[in-house]
């Protein structure tokens, strides 16, 4: 049986938070346990350089993200788990793709367009002010990530769908120009059931809004942050609306159906915000205590993490190197026998 190849990348610029866990990490780890799937999960650390020129931040984030996935039980015998920057074939493929990718396609990328729009709104003479080639052409790097391993399914957030379509475009063009089935056309998978978690201020939990709850914050910090979640001014005893309530949403994301139903009832019966927050803290802490301990142990043993990632890179390169050979041949860069 040929396994479906599922691949996704995590940009290494931040510290994993509850929103990342519910929206991406948890479903990815679950999917990696499916025997009909071969999963490729990697730290998109070359992508990190586009947004972040703080070496320490990038370095720290890579370690934290790796430790997080391992602490939460990613089975690295099953899934291929690696750092993008350990696979030199990826930037090489990026160049081959750059040479078949229309510039006009990149002009239409959302991230680039948003940066241009910001410049225009700020009245800047140069619409490209402050925009690097990295930002402009990053969909090509992302296409290389995906096409390198002939991934069929790419789980991503909505904002990334366009990039997968661009990868399909490049794959099709390359196949056509060089007359072969070199690349599989990938598909974006957006799981409608996976929740976008709200953050401390009620907006989407996101590093850019500075409203996150780090997944492995200490117990004390976790309690402090849960207490900061924005609620309204209803008093204890007054019935509350569980829908459209960030606190309830986070609670439900971790609770069993029965626990969530019971909390819903308590809302209707007028539970006080202080009490609801205590219950949320207890629930989160119960779920996170053990992985938090594993996380801390892993963070103290970076050599172990390094070894796991190098093993992953070795497996990934065992596929990337022959693929790259074939592609070199295809474009006229093969060996003289
Ligand atoms: N750009 C993606 C993001 O910001 C991360 C990413 C990089 C990725 N390469 C990828 C996701 C390849 C899926 C496949 O979320």
TrEMBL record:
Binding sites annotated in the UniProt record for ATP: 11-13, 19-20, 157-159, 197, 204-208
Pfam family name, one: tRNA-synt_1b
Gene3D superfamilies, alphabetized: HUPs, Tyrosyl-Transfer RNA Synthetase
Motif, 'KMSKS' region: chain positions: 204-208
InterPro entries noted in UniProt: aa-tRNA-synth_Ic, Rossmann-like_a/b/a_fold, Trp-tRNA-ligase, Trp-tRNA-ligase_bac-type, Trp-tRNA_synthetase
Subcellular location: Cytoplasm
Name of the top EC class for this enzyme: ligase
Documented EC number(s): 6.1.1.2
Sorted UniProt keywords: Aminoacyl-tRNA synthetase, ATP-binding, Cytoplasm, Ligase, Nucleotide-binding, Protein biosynthesis
SUPFAM superfamilies: Nucleotidylyl transferase
GO annotation terms (biological process): tryptophanyl-tRNA aminoacylation
GO cellular component terms attached to this protein's record: cytosol
Motif ('HIGH' region): 12-20
GO MF, one annotated term: tryptophan-tRNA ligase activity
Binding-site positions, L-tryptophan: 145
Catalytic activity: tRNA(Trp) + L-tryptophan + ATP = L-tryptophyl-tRNA(Trp) + AMP + diphosphate + H(+)
Record note on quaternary structure: Homodimer.
Biological role stated in the UniProt entry: Catalyzes the attachment of tryptophan to tRNA(Trp).
NCBIfam families: PRK12284.1 (NF008923), PRK12556.1 (NF009207), trpS (TIGR00233)
Family: Belongs to the class-I aminoacyl-tRNA synthetase family.
UniProt name for this protein: Tryptophan--tRNA ligase
Species in which this protein is naturally found: Litchfieldella anticariensis (strain DSM 16096 / CECT 5854 / CIP 108499 / LMG 22089 / FP35)
Gene field: trpS
